[in-house]
Amino acid sequence: MHSIAFNFFGRPIHWYGICIAAGFLAALCILQYKRNYARMDKEQIFDIALIAIFGGIGGARLFYVIQFFHQFSGNLWNVFRIDQGGLVFYGGFLTALVILFIYAKIKKLSFARILDMYAPAIAIGHAFGRVGCFLQGCCFGKPCSWGVVYPGNSAPAERFPDYLSPVKNVIEGIPSIPLAPVQLIEAAGNIVLCVFLLKLFKYVKKTGQIAAAYFAMYGIMRFLLEFFRGDHTDTILGVTPSQFIGLFIMLPCGLICYLCFGKYGKDAVTNEDLKGAFTFHFFNRKKDAAE
């Protein structure tokens, strides 16, 4: 756990904030690359990227504060310190979804195409975010023999202290017992999901099916990973809030969208839609050399 990357004029810059920024840039690259599919120009891509990032972060923070309000009862100013971690993915996802729907209606764009384009972008951005969670020490896992040990005075150490640790001291506090690195597992899963969704564009016949695959696949992945999370204390019908959303909202939405868009959708995907808005010169050089 290394929460602080460096100090800038005496103020600590957290890795979590850096990872969020890197995730936004990676997602923006995918949005720009696939903008032909959504039939949008550069300016519109920047519009929805900024709208989604600010709306998404706002919604993600709001959901986190509601879920863990006890952490802010002593200092409400910390509600705005998102650089120190504390975002609920589903809160940001649902908020951004509503904002994008409104934007698509105003601009008379295809909401299904925007969702398809956003699916791999969300996955790669989420992967960077989970790396930030790992470095910040939030969203930690449950005890396991093959886990990682967090330092004393951290949230994981407070929840799962290792009283038998030989390295504990008065200043640093008691470290945690080994905990599952569930953040890194989810980051890897999101990277695989992003690559899979980008490959899937070649095989879809109707718009909306990429988004449907993302809804279903991420819902299943998140439901399974939640069994290894150790930071949750609240449950809904015996499952965590994220498991409830993944199993009873994301997965059904994915299946319904796939069936509806596949059977009733009239917006077919053309070869022009699948062309990238720009090319990667590194790969083109290799191709030219081979020819």
What does this protein structure show overall?
This protein is mostly helical. It has one domain (4-142, 180-277). The protein has helices spanning 15-33, 35-38, 42-67, 89-107, 111-136, 155-159, 182-200, 209-225, 241-264, 281-290, and strands at 4-8, 11-14, 143-148. It has a two-stranded antiparallel ribbon with strand order 1-2. A hairpin with a 2-residue loop joins strand 1 (4-8) and strand 2 (11-14). Helix 5 (111-136) packs antiparallel against helix 7. It is globular and about 65 Å long. The protein starts with a strand and ends with a helix. The mean pLDDT is 85.
Summarize this entry quickly.
By secondary structure, the chain is mainly alpha-helical.
Order of helices and strands: EEHHHHHEHHHHH
Strand order of the largest sheet: 1-2
- Shape annotation: globular
> Strand portion, in percent?
5-15%
Residue stretches low in confidence (pLDDT < 50, at least 5 long) are: none
Radius of gyration from CA coordinates: 21 Å
Salient structural properties:
single chain, 291 residues, mainly alpha, two-stranded antiparallel sheet, 3 strands
Helices and strands in order:
Elements: E1 4-8, E2 11-14, H1 15-33, H2 35-38, H3 42-67, H4 89-107, H5 111-136, E3 143-148, H6 155-159, H7 182-200, H8 209-225, H9 241-264, H10 281-290
Helix pairs in contact: 1-3, 1-5, 3-4, 4-5, 5-7, 5-8, 7-8, 8-9
